[in-house]
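Sample pair:
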Amino acid sequence: MKIFIIAFTNSALNLAKFLNNYLNAEIYFKPKNLYELTGKIFTDSDAIIFISACGIAVRAISKYINSKLTDPAVIVIDEKANYVIPILSGHIGGANELARNIAKILNAQPVITTATDLNNLIAVDEWAVNNNCNIENPELIKNISGALLENKNKNKNLKIGVAVTEQNINLKDLWPVTLILRPKNLILGAGCKKNIDPDLFENSALKFLENSGVSYLSLKILASIDIKKHEPAMINFARKYKIDFVTFSADELNNLNGSFTDSERVKNFIGVGNVCERSAILAAGNKAALLRSKFIINNITFALARGEF
């Protein structure tokens, strides 16, 4: 995790240095402009820890808060190390879990205020993070949590539920109110010409996924041949959709056992007859399944594999 600690007193600085033995954080002491610093690090951090009063932290982060899907964990610790208080992104951002871990280190009291935690219930958004899922419609998290808190899970007639799937099926056939969790288990294999337009690559990839009946939110890896490891369009796509970009040598792709849609022309040019299918399967691992074989959109080849989840 990329963690920043902000301290304002000598006692707080000593506490920050002690915590840093465990957290490997970047420490800021008495920043000249707290609000400017907070804005600078807010989107570039996994967690921000204030060793201060809660009010200072709340004012510092207030205008930068955007979404529970993207905001970092924010934690406040008093300088005497009595209490560790998560104040933002308790579940998806991991603030509650981090607060508990810090409290153990400091022998302090974690102050957890989220209702599901207090009632020893599963927090569906935290479950999604821990199980490597994206949340498609986070506005429905409160519906699931509310149903759990009211014991409505015991009511068989309640039309509310959670679906964990990469498929774009009509989920309302299951429940009128359906929280959709997308497991990150899909690998997109791709091959293209050098210096292809990034927008063309992105739009073609999204069209391929849509036509394949799956959600882009389930993408885990973009895979290709190693001569593409510096291809701007692929790098940009992976960065934008927050997925890994992996490449393999021609030998690695050729040594993969299986039946693939090979092309002699392509093999004579780059040393392997099929990049998209082979790279997708190789990146997917031991339990790989090819969901869609080689398909060409705008002279870009795509294939889709499912990995282990």
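The chain has a mean pLDDT of 92.
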